[in-house]
Design goal:
Elements (H helix, E strand, L loop, with lengths): L1 E6 L4 H13 L7 E6 L9 E2 L10 H10 L1 E3 L3 E2 L4 E2 L9 E2 L2 E6 H6 L2 E6 L10 E6 L21 H9 L7 H23 L3 H19 L5 H21 L1
Parallel strand pairs: 1-2, 5-9
Antiparallel strand pairs: 2-8, 3-7, 4-8, 6-7, 9-10
Helix pairs in contact: 1-2, 4-5, 6-7
Length: 241
């Protein structure tokens, strides 16, 4: 697969040069993904606030997509990926970031998903891109998470599980003790941390909802909800890191 990551300029002339260079790099038969900040929108639904959308704004971008034989992969999550973070009527939202793919890329993956993650405190929302391939179905291995060591009681959990009486040869006893410790840690993790990845995703969804509400209600109460959701996400991300 070929990935092209872009950060387009704000001017029509600057983007025109980018379209030409991307067309020069267009692969003939390989799956191609182009993602990033294109700094342009293609219809009025991709903007809120500011001056009304003009059809001419996105005409050259659409012409480039047609010539390159690529299309928008779609998205879920926040409606907009960029905000100028100004207050009141001066606040503007746009969908400036996206993923474009060609037909070969669509044929390669059984499913491609693009999620607009929480934007705060940045002005752009990160894009989370997932490809579901046939090789993604294997069992997940056990991994020790460093964040577990932040809890002093972990050592007691391990010691108690390890001291369990096991019958059999020394090698069989070792394997049984390792399996017992693994199960004990997994149970303890569910009680104290839960699924770290799920916690982050839930925090991202909460912040996305709060940010989406802010596009309709700009009161101080809603802004406070955004800040609270941001704090929850920061905590979840710190644990994940």
């Amino acid at each position: 697969m070929i990935f092209s990551f872009v950060h387009a300029l704000c001017t029509v002339e600057g983007r025109r040069d980018l379209w030409a260079k991307l067309l020069a790099d267009k692969p003939h038969s390989l799956p191609w993904c182009i993602g990033g900040d294109f700094n342009v929108i293609v219809n009025g639904h991709e903007k809120r606030g500011g001056r009304p959308f003009m059809v001419s704004e996105g005409s050259e971008f659409l012409a480039f997509m047609e010539e390159a034989e690529i299309f928008d992969a779609g998205f879920s999550g926040l409606s907009y990926t960029w905000c100028n973070n100004r207050r009141g009527r001066a606040r503007i939202w746009k969908r400036l970031d996206r993923l474009l793919i060609n037909g070969e890329c669509s044929d390669l993956a059984s499913a491609i998903s693009v999620v607009h993650l929480a934007r705060h405190p940045l002005d752009h929302a990160p894009l989370k891109i997932s490809f579901a391939l046939r090789m993604d179905n294997g069992p997940r291995p056990f991994r020790f998470l460093n964040v577990w060591t932040s809890k002093p009681e972990l050592l007691g959990v391990i010691r108690e599980a390890w001291d369990t009486e096991v019958q059999g040869s020394p090698l069989r006893a070792l394997c049984s003790k390792l399996l017992t410790v693994r199960r004990a840690i997994q149970l303890w993790n569910k009680q104290h941390f839960g699924d770290i990845g799920t916690t982050v995703r839930e925090a991202e969804v909460g912040l996305s909802r709060a940010d989406e509400e802010l596009t309709h209600d700009r009161s101080d109460g809603v802004l406070e909800n955004v800040h609270r959701a941001q704090a929850e996400l920061n905590r979840a991300l710190a644990i994940e890191e």
